[in-house]
Amino acid sequence: MTTPTRHLRIHQYAGLQPGPRLLVTAAVHGNEVHGTHAMAGLMQKLDSGELVLERGTLTFVPIVNPLANQLNRREGDRNLNRNLRPPVIAHDYEDRIARVLCPLIAQHDGILDLHSFQGNGPAFAMVGPRNNTGELEPFTQEATESALAAALGVSRIVEGWLSTYALGLQRRQLRDHDGSRRTSLIIDPHYGVGTTEYMRSTGGWAITLECGQHLDPNGPEVARLAILRTLVFLGMVTADAVEPHRPAQPPEVLQLYEVIDREDMGDQFAREWASFDAIASGQTIGTRASGEAVLAPSEGRIVFPNVKSQPGTEWFYLARPSDRLLPHNGA
């Protein structure tokens, strides 16, 4: 039996001039390793002097969840990227990671969190809310996130995660529950908070980059270019470190507005969906174990369809066009 790693491997580079403090993370979900591979290559270049950090502090955490990574699955004991906060009492492996990860996040100005996804589909970035002073996710860094997301080289940007997740949580809290720790976690109002949401709660900015499907051979290159473009955007490396992103047209921006949970393992999709497949109003997306059809409430896109989701957790999300304005050219 494999002994779970009891430490986090953290690599830090300090430029000789003051500047931003950037945290880059990967394998928050253990089988999402495009960013892990990209960081390994960039660390070789930094160590050899081929890439020079001119200013600021760059921190790499190539494997945030070592247990899940060793098991080659999404989670160790639970989903690290939900309900992320320093625990008063550590109940599981992910709680012990959070004790180290949360203070590390708070020491930085921003985070680029590198992920991948189960279904097919192109790479995309996720950003936080608009500037606001509300209770759910107060925020002041909309301009930074919008400009950086536009510079990363993806053709699609998605917003609205936490507000959409909160709607799903409200429905979960109305159901009957078995009193288990798993159930108590998925109905906790904090359950939508992961790495990026925690960073925003400390006053920083955050980008999630979904680098493609888990086994997409181009995923590490998507991650590598994103890291370099972020460093250039922040002025931490020289502009010639990477070819800038010069899109023919601005990225498409979508707003998440609904999340639908799987209720039973007998719930089945009507077809093999990929993220951002178009859906028409009233179209059948799937069928419940009871035979009830799950219909699209309006025209839009399906996001994160997950045939492996467990009952009581997210089955898929719905998105529609956003009116968010982005810069017309990248960094």
Question: What does this 3D model show about the protein?
Answer:
This protein has 331 residues and is α/β, with parallel strands linked by helices. The chain has 2 domains: 11-250, Aminopeptidase (3-Layer(aba) Sandwich), CATH 3.40.630; 254-321, OB fold (Dihydrolipoamide Acetyltransferase, E2P), CATH 2.40.50.100. Helices cover 26% and strands 22% of the residues. It has 8 helices and 14 strands. The protein has helices at residues 34-48, 66-71, 93-106, 142-151, 161-172, 181-186, 195-201, 219-233; strands spanning 11-14, 21-26, 57-61, 110-117, 124-126, 156-159, 205-213, 252-261, 268-269, 278-279, 284-287, 293-295, 300-303, 314-321. The strands form 2 sheets. An 11-stranded mixed sheet has the order 1-3-2-4-7-5-6-8-14-13-10, with helices on both faces. Helix 1 (34-48) packs across helix 8. Its cofactor is Zn(2+). It holds the Pfam family AstE_AspA_cat. Keywords: Hydrolase, Metal-binding, Zinc.
Q: TL;DR?
A:
By secondary structure, this protein is α/β, with parallel strands linked by helices. The protein has eight helices and 14 strands.
Q: From the structure provided, what is the oligomeric state, counting identical versus distinct chains?
A: single chain
The CATH topology assignment of the largest domain is Aminopeptidase
- Counted by DSSP, the helix tally is 8
Indicate the mean pLDDT: 91
Topology of this protein?
Elements: E1 11-14, E2 21-26, H1 34-48, E3 57-61, H2 66-71, H3 93-106, E4 110-117, E5 124-126, H4 142-151, E6 156-159, H5 161-172, H6 181-186, H7 195-201, E7 205-213, H8 219-233, E8 252-261, E9 268-269, E10 278-279, E11 284-287, E12 293-295, E13 300-303, E14 314-321
Parallel strand pairs: 2-3, 2-4, 4-7, 5-6, 6-8
Antiparallel strand pairs: 1-3, 5-7, 8-14, 9-11, 10-13, 11-12, 13-14
